[in-house]
Amino acid sequence: MIRKSISKQASAGLPSPAEAWIDRYRHDGGLRRYVVYLAFALILATFSIILHDDGFLSSSNLLNIGRQAAPIAVMAVGMAFALAAGEIDLSVGSVVALSSLVAAEIVGNHGFLAGALAALGTSALVGIVNGFITVKVRIPSFLVTLGMLGIISGIARNWNDLQSLPIRNDRFSGIFGAGGLGPVSSLLIWIIVVGALGHIALHHLRWGRHVLSTGADRDAASAAGINTARVKISALVVSAIAAGFAGILLAGRLSIGRHDLGEDYLLTVIAAVVIGGTNLFGGRASVFGAVTGALIMAMLNNGLILMGLEVADQLIARGVIIILAVALSMREAKET
Amino acid sequence: MSSAPALAASGISKSFRAVHALDDVSIELHRGRVTALLGDNGAGKSTLVKCISGLYQPDAGRIFIEGAEHRISSSRHARELGIETVHQTLSVIDPLDVAENLFLNREHTRGGWLGARIGLLDKRRMRQECASTLARLDIRIPSLRRSVGSLSGGQRQAVAIGRAVAWGQQIVLLDEPAAALGVEQTQRVLDLIVNLRDQGVAVLLITHNMDRVLAVCDQAVVLYQGRKCAELDVADVTKDDLVSYITGARGTG
User: Fold this and answer.
1) Is A23 within 8 Å of B142 when comparing Cβ atoms?
2) CATH number at residue A47
3) B68 SS3 class
4) pTM of the model
């Protein structure tokens, strides 16, 4: 009976997009794909009710959440590619700081564009080194990037003796964080731009498919002729460039470069990506999910502060959320 | 066979340290014929397939394709020469959908020169071609947009085999393609093999199942401890004959 209807469908040609969507929803992931968006709506609704009197829903507070989420969201998009390829990048936080310092150093004498490009170029270099050591020396990326985290943090601390470098360039600050288009903060626009670019790269470029293939089953990907070493390196480069861009956004918003920018972002970024439906062990990734995860993390942060939690309690709450998210991710990995 | 065989490997030897996995083995594959490669575990079947598919470099021996000698340096090179392998495990990418798997690393792009440079996928064209390829092979999949991980074992194997021949590959090596499948799904894979044969493909089938050999194979090559111990016309033998060669009870040397 079922077989008959299937063969009829096949002989009639391709099903309509709606039919294909319903089929995938029913047999291939279903609600799981949309859990992060439901969680977002649920948390938003909860805070809206219990923090109503604290101004959670005020436009200034929502804008604030968006601003705080921006660097996390950008890093999360990059990290989604590293994880999708079966690697992890623990050096992202330190790259944020390095990028902000490089930008601050260059912007003053050479203009905003040169500053941004130098910061991104430096970040890309870090990613290339991470990737090459991981792939060619065959050291797991969590060790390579952990070492790199130390190295880059040290360089950032030495850069200007722990002092911040001021950025006095209105165009740089305006484009990368302080300004905006009318009432819309440029940070929100960057979230959308980076999210869209990431989504296209993952779903509509050959490279994105190869990243997923490499992370899902490296042997099968190589057997299909994919250069998995190059794919892994490129994924770590993308992760580093995204972290560098987050550094530029922070430098733009605060008008400084400083050694400790992004220092405590790592866990938040990983939590955002994993909550968003990206598998911690490769082969499955969602860019929109990662961005939504970043918004959730920023919203939680904001809500916990408004609820009057101390920093210590916030850390605990965040840790619990990360463990829950990873547990969920591993359960799904076993299912498939 | 009057014309040159689609593939001829002669005198292939391969050792791993002190173990002679293959010792002076020769085999010929012909268009429109299914050749069984038989042997007990460790007889050297997989090693031979890996030598032909470019994963291993044989220590000695020569490989001819359509009469021309080639040194097959990698799996990519083998594919360029028209050889496709469906391994028992190395096959499909679970999170990708059916069309994406079929076109893995051979994707169509759109957007002209720039699109080709950045690799902008032409998903529509890939789905259409995928549908027609599967239809030609009589492979039925509920939806081309499902991730392969959500399909049954038989459907996944069918996708893997479909990929092997979607490109007009003329030599297909199948390593236990029905190992993990149920009865009905196995039958569908065997039908698919017959289908390939009728379309003029040279097929090499590794299997432990003698009924499958008798059902779809034209000739059989039996390996015993790394050496070829028999080369038979399947029409002339019984199941017991095959088993006695495989176990080494009988051998023509």
Assistant:
1) yes
2) 1.10.3470.10
3) strand
4) 0.85
Of B91, B119, B147, the CB nearest to A220: B91
- Whether residue A129 lies inside any domain: the answer is yes
Q: Does the beta-carbon distance from A6 to B79 stay under 8 Å?
A: no
CB A296 within 8 A of CB A36: yes
As a whole number, the mean pLDDT across chain B is 87
Is A309 a domain residue? yes
Name residues whose C-beta falls within 8 Å of residue A69's C-beta, 6 or more positions apart in sequence. Answer: A191, A294, A295, A297, A298, A299
pLDDT for residue B186 is more than 90 = no
A24 in contact with B at a CB cutoff of 8 Å? yes
Q: What band does B120 get if pLDDT is binned at 50, 70 and 90?
A: very high
ipTM of the complex, rounded to two decimals: 0.82
Q: Tell me whether residue A284 is in a domain.
A: yes
Please report, for chain B, the start and end positions of each structural domain, with discontinuous segments joined by +.
7-246
Tokens linked to A232:
């892994």
Whole-number Å distance between alpha carbons of A139 and A132:
10
Nearest CA in chain B to A10: B140
A15: enclosing H helix or E strand: none
Which pair of structure tokens corresponds to residue A187?
A: 């940070």
B7-246 fold: Rossmann fold (3.40.50)
- In the structure encoding, which two tokens stand for residue A109, read together? 């004498």
Judging contacts by C-beta atoms under 8 Å, the chain A residues touching residue B94 are 216-217, 283, 336
State whether B96 and A11 contact (CB < 8 Å): no
